[in-house]
Description:
Structural class: alpha+beta
Strand content: 25-35%
Largest sheet: 4 strands, antiparallel
Order of helices and strands: EEHEEEEEEEE
Helix content: 25-40%
Oligomer: single chain
Distance between the termini: 61 Å
Number of strands: 10
Number of helices: 1
Shape: elongated
Amino acid sequence: KTAYEVYRCDWSSDVCSSDLYARGFTLIELMATLAIAAVLVTLSIGFGSLIQRNQLITAVNTLVNDMNFARSEAIKSGTEIVICITNDGVNCNKGDRWQQGWMIYHDRNGNRRRDHGEPIIRRKNAFAEQTLIRYNGRPVDNYIRFQATGSTQYNGTFSFCHKTHGNYKRALILSNTGRLRTASRQANGREINCLG
């Protein structure tokens, strides 16, 4: 502690007095401050991981919801419904990176391309930059076609990863009947890989 002296003067009586004050922190105050700082740092690190895990879970749940909607719409309307990758919300794009967003539309003529007059019934904008979604399906990776029966006639696996946390991974497995299931590995038993 540092000591300092304070002078007080009463000018009406010409009397001055001094008091000695100590300035600084006690050991208990310093320990309490360090303990609070440690708790805050620990919480902030854990909170960041929680946010990243929730981003991935949100991406999985959003795609599951939209895929189930597309399947249901195909059965209800008796027409083919396509869900495909899109950058502009109007046209389907090539590739297997679904994090850029997707759209769902009625494919009335069955050509698997959105033509003028085919209504878009749902859109999803791009996800956060750290979220990666890759689809490995056959015969194509950029769209899924639900027939009026609700089937797709082919299997595929969506891989969900977080760019900065490689251990945050999920697989969404699509069966040829149009049903979905989540897993910690791909349908073939291999580890989930969003980069390959």
